[in-house]
């Protein structure tokens, strides 16, 4: 029975990891390197994560510093940051790109909270899909009715735990965003 539970737990944990990445990419008005995690740079015809062509650091609370490894990549990195829809205006200084994190307006904070809720709901859907798939495999397995019921109950408990965790994570992020 634990094979079904472990499978469900693994699938649901992946959704939580994905949510952590998504929430980390949302600006709260403070500089963190994870804000740039979603940016892809055109590197000789293929899209590469920014972290594979530059070092990202935080010299000040509201400033990100991107040290591009190759001179010929600076303009591509600047363009990728500008086109990322994150609201950043990069400034180039040789191979160093500085990004000031703008203060968030009340309207922008509300938009970000909606985005957080959307990310949370998307992950809840993926967790429910994992539950459905595992329960289908339990039904297809040749096990007794008692074992089937026990497995379904365990999977539902696991699902409830992960849904609760998502609610907590999104609530914490919303509070963090709304702080002035």
What's the SSE blueprint?
Elements: H1 2-24, E1 40-43, E2 46-49, E3 54-60, E4 63-68, H2 74-82, E5 91-93, E6 96-100, H3 106-140, H4 145-178
Antiparallel strand pairs: 1-2, 3-4, 4-6, 5-6
Description:
- Helix content is 56%, strand content 16%.
- By secondary structure, the protein is of the alpha+beta class.
- It has 2 domains: 2-24 and 105-178, Topoisomerase I, Chain A, domain 4, CATH 1.10.132.20; 33-100, 2-Layer Sandwich (Gyrase A, domain 2).
**Helix amount:** 55-70%
Secondary-structure element series: HEEEEHEEHH
CATH architecture of the largest domain: Orthogonal Bundle
Radius of gyration: 21 Å
Classified in CATH, the superfamily of the largest domain is: Ribosome-recycling factor
Mean residue pLDDT:
88
Quick overview of this protein structure:
The protein is an alpha+beta fold. It has helices at residues 2-24, 74-82, 106-140, 145-178, and strands at 40-43, 46-49, 54-60, 63-68, 91-93, 96-100.
């Amino acid at each position: 029975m634990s094979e079904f539970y472990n499978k469900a737990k693994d699938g649901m944990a992946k959704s939580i990891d994905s949510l952590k990445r998504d929430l980390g990419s949302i600006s709260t008005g403070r500089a963190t390197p994870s804000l740039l995690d979603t940016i892809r740079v055109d590197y000789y015809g293929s899209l590469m994560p920014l972290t594979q062509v530059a070092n990202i650091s935080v010299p000040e609370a509201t400033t990100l510093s991107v040290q591009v490894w190759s001179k010929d990549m600076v303009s591509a990195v600047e363009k990728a940051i500008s086109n990322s829809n994150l609201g950043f205006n990069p400034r180039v200084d040789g191979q160093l790109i500085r990004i000031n994190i703008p203060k968030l307006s009340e309207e922008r904070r509300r938009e970000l909270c909606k985005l957080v809720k959307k990310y949370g709901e998307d992950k809840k859907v993926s967790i429910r899909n994992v539950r459905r798939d595992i329960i289908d495999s339990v039904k297809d397995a040749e096990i007794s009715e008692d074992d089937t019921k026990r497995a379904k109950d365990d999977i539902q408990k696991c699902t409830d735990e992960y849904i609760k965790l998502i609610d907590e994570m999104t609530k914490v992020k919303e509070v963090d965003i709304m702080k002035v």
